[in-house]
Amino acid sequence: xxxxxxxxxxxxxxxxxxxxxxxxxxxxxxxxxxxxxxxxxxxxxxxxxxxxxxxxxxxxxxxxxxxxxxxxxxxxxxxxxxxxxxx
Length: 87
Fold this sequence. Notes:
- By secondary structure, the protein is of the alpha+beta class.
- The protein has helices at 53-62, 64-69, 75-86, and strands at 8-10, 17-19, 23-28, 34-37, 45-50.
- It has a single domain (8-86), classed as Hypothetical Cytosolic Protein, Chain: A, CATH 3.30.1230.
- The strands form 2 sheets. It has a 3-stranded antiparallel sheet. A two-stranded antiparallel ribbon has the order 1-2.
């Protein structure tokens, strides 16, 4: 039996290639809404972030998600990401 291919994605903060399941996807849709996509299948422009508090802090400090998604990320989205990481 053939071995399944593991999807790899790049973290926007660290530039590290990781398995898709080890990353969080943040999406900006056509309406301009920004939200966390836990399924990884929502429509819109996506950016991947490693599930690590240090990486989240660096993303907030450097505004890496703002640049990648070409919009301002609301504070509640960062809070939601933090809750998911610390689960």
